Every structure is written in structure tokens, then in C-alpha cells.
Amino acid sequence: MTTVSPMALRRCSWFTALDRAPLTRLAVSSTFGFSDRDDWLYREGSPADAAYLVTRGAARWVRSDGHGREFVLSVLTFDWAMHAAADAIRGGVHKHGLQSLHRMHYIRIPAEEFRLALDASLDLTKRVAAAMASDVHALAETAGTLGLLDIRGRVAKALLETADAAGHARFLVTQADVAGQLGMSRQSFNEILSELRARGLIRGGGRGSVVVRDRDGLRRLLRAGS
Questions:
Q1: Cα separation of 18 and 13, whole Å?
Q2: Which of 29, 73, 78, 138 is 20 to 30 A from 60, alpha carbon to alpha carbon?
Q3: What is the pTM assigned to this prediction?
């Protein structure tokens, strides 16, 4: 088992102000790990017994609808970023699942040791609280998008937010996952993409990507769908 050094934890901004003694205790109790493509770091309903410092990777944040069907809440990319801290603090079980999109590297921090570190650092507590507030805001924004926009408006919004300066919108997940995030079926999502291509607003950009040709046209579609 590879030893986690205190300096490795300090690469995450959350731990920069943590004193040496609690930082060392946290490092000693932590372990390195990795998950391959489509592996689950944890599943919804599994014990929330750790927080994770993900050093590299991307993943689907997944939740079930109560009928055995899973849908993607969000796609998360990581670069020395903490995840599942709120679950580790609260205890119990995970309210969502996290599934790797490709090989993901992480440091597993036991929940009890993480809570002790919070007790030792007001700065760490503030950072965790800010992150939790940000997650709530993101989920509220997603809910607002589903509730206030029609399906064409949702697709237009997703394309505008995903496209880079050159207009390339590359989705890290499957079309079924994107459709699920937008609250529609894959068939409906593909039909709208075909419609947007026919109207000259987008064109195909290769596997898993779309090129936005007319941002103003998508903005008009977004306004019309609200």
C-alpha cells in the first residue's frame, strides 16, 4: 500500500492552512487508489465512510429515480479536488453514486479522520461549507433549467454552455447520459440535434462532438423556450 504524504494532501487548497499535526494524522490514515472506466468509486446507498481527494479524472454523478432507472445529475472533472466531503461529514449512506468516465486517481480519506481534521481547523470547515453551498446552487440551477425551459431550450442552453471559443461542444458522456441530464429521452435529444443541424445552427464535429455555427440562433431558441 502506497503511503500518502502530507505534502500530497497540501496540493488540495482545502488543506493549505491545516496545521502539521492534524495534516500528518490525516495523511497516515489515507490511501491511494484508482478506478478504471465505468468503475464505481461508490454507489448510491453505499456507506458514506470516506471523503475523496481526486487527483485526476472525470466521472458521472448518478442518482436513481426510485424505479431502478439511473440518470446523470452532472459530469464532474477533477484536478486535486475534494469530493463526497458532505457525505463523509453527515455519515449514513451516499445519496448519489460516482462512476468513472475513464481511469481516475484518488486519495481515500476515512470519514472519522476527516471529521477530526474539521474539528482542528476553522479554515477547513469554512472551505467545506462553501463547497457544500456551491453543490446546492448547482443542483438548484439544474432543477430550474428542467422546470423553466422546454426541451429545445434545454438543448440550446447545454450547447452554449459546453461550446469552446471555436464553437466545439464535446460531451464527455454518452448521448443517453446528456439526454438524461436534460430530462428527455435519447430519441428526443437526437431529434432536436437533427432539427438544429437542418436549421444551420450546428453541424457534426466528429465522434461525441458538435460544432455550434450560430450562437445567436441558439440564444434566440433559448429565450423562446423559457
A1: 10
A2: 29
A3: 0.71
